[in-house]
């Protein structure tokens, strides 16, 4: 009888052996982004978060562009053409540093660039995508409004045709990542034909983007309001290939996919901090990691963390095969963000009072994830998406 192969050693960092599912190119992407984040973000992120700013965002964007991380799953126009799994791994590593950094990349690539790439004219693509892929131009995505978040069909922003063929936009958008540093905004507006997307240079007269301050989440991220007051655009500013909510919702599906991975990065960072703390913190004459209740917490955290990574990997393979459905992305975002927050909160209990200190990443990740939980689809919206898929009955109205 042939001898059975020797089992590999148990790896606490990869208890399910998920790395065995990755190709060498996948691992190279992951390690490149991880090293960049360790060098350029982690030494400074606590200070940025405490001050509520992201200094040098344009330099960071150019560096991310040089890594191929901006619009990385898109083809052509200077984009990397990476796989969905590789893009997901990049999101995980970026959010392990901070959700604000991953949001910068997601909004740039999965919302603004994706909208132009999928629905734009050839001229729009040639004009904007190469510079956005290089990080030379930062983009933002204007969908959410002060009074309309989960119900974008009733947005109040309007675009009307002028007698000369131009478009004139009026309205406001709210909670817009990258808004006040963007060179271009993809803005969705009501028209006589239905909801349309517009490529808006942010130096257009009548366009302004005041930054939103006093946030207690995503503090190391630029968040703005967009104000459009008689913004005049040429006839060819409209995205020609889509009318209706299908346009912005398809962009959101792509961005939500990145969140499925990214949230696990925040969870991993908090979990690793809890493990290291549990091994070094002593109470009652021994490390607290040696007590049963602490080990139970760590075991449960590890189970949910690596189940979430497996789920993200599965959805990535489906996206690469062209078989990923929006309902499956809702499944992933609902589960992974919810579990990531729980992991962060449990990690905080292991660190005790130290868990609220910016010396450790746990509370920063927990507060960031409170935003990730509700942006790009609240818990309730994703529950209703799945409920409709499961029953065939629409409970939205």
UniProtKB/TrEMBL annotation:
Stretches of the chain forming a coiled coil according to its record: none
SUPFAM superfamilies found in the cross-reference section: Acyl-CoA dehydrogenase C-terminal domain-like, Acyl-CoA dehydrogenase NM domain-like
Keyword Oxidoreductase: yes
Cofactor(s) listed: FAD
Domain (Acyl-CoA oxidase/dehydrogenase middle) ranges: 140-231
Keyword Flavoprotein: yes
InterPro entries xrefs: Acyl-CoA_Oxase/DH_mid-dom, Acyl-CoA_Oxase/DH_mid-dom_sf, AcylCo_DH-like_C, AcylCo_DH/oxidase_C, AcylCoA_DH/ox_N, AcylCoA_DH/ox_N_sf, AcylCoA_DH/oxidase_NM_dom_sf, Glutaryl-CoA_DH_mitochondrial
Domain Acyl-CoA dehydrogenase/oxidase N-terminal: 24-136
All copies of domain Acyl-CoA dehydrogenase/oxidase C-terminal, residue ranges: 244-390
Keywords: FAD, Flavoprotein, Oxidoreductase, Transit peptide
Family, similarity comment: Belongs to the acyl-CoA dehydrogenase family.
Protein name listed in UniProt: Acyl-CoA dehydrogenase family protein
Organism of origin: Streptomyces vinaceusdrappus
């Amino acid at each position: 009888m042939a001898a059975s192969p020797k089992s590999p050693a148990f790896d606490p960092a990869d208890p399910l052996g998920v790395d065995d599912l990755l190709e060498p190119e996948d691992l190279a992407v992951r390690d490149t982004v991880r090293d960049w984040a360790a060098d350029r973000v982690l030494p400074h992120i606590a200070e940025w978060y405490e001050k509520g700013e992201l200094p040098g965002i344009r330099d960071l964007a150019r560096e991310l562009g040089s890594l191929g991380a901006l619009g990385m799953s898109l083809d052509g126009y200077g984009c990397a053409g990476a796989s969905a799994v590789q893009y997901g791994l990049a999101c995980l590593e970026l959010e392990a540093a901070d959700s604000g950094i991953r949001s910068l990349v997601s909004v740039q690539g999965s919302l603004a660039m994706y909208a132009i790439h999928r629905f734009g004219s050839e001229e729009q693509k040639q004009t904007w995508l190469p510079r956005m892929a290089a990080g030379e131009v930062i983009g933002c995505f204007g969908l959410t409004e002060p009074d309309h978040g989960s119900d974008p069909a009733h947005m109040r922003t309007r675009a009307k045709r002028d007698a000369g063929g131009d478009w004139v936009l009026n309205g406001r958008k709210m909670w817009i990542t990258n808004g006040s540093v963007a060179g271009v905004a993809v803005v969705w507006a009501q028209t006589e034909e239905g909801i349309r997307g517009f490529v808006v240079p942010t130096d257009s007269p009548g366009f302004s983007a005041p930054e939103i301050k006093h946030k207690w989440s995503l503090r190391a991220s630029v968040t703005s309001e967009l104000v459009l007051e008689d913004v005049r655009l040429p006839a060819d500013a409209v995205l020609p290939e889509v009318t209706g909510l299908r346009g912005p919702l398809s962009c959101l599906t792509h961005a939500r996919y990145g969140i499925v991975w990214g949230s696990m990065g925040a969870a991993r960072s908090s979990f690793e901090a809890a493990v290291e703390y549990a091994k070094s913190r002593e109470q009652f004459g021994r490390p607290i990691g040696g007590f049963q209740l602490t080990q139970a917490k760590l075991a449960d955290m590890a189970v949910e963390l690596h189940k979430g990574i497996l789920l993200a990997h599965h959805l990535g393979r489906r996206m690469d095969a062209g078989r990923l459905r929006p309902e499956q992305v809702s499944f992933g975002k609902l589960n992974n963000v919810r579990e990531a927050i729980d992991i962060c909160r449990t990690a905080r209990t292991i660190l005790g009072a130290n868990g609220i200190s910016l010396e450790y990443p746990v509370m920063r990740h927990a507060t960031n994830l409170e935003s990730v939980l509700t942006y790009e689809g609240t818990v309730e919206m994703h529950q209703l998406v799945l409920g409709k898929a499961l029953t065939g009955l629409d409970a939205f109205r």
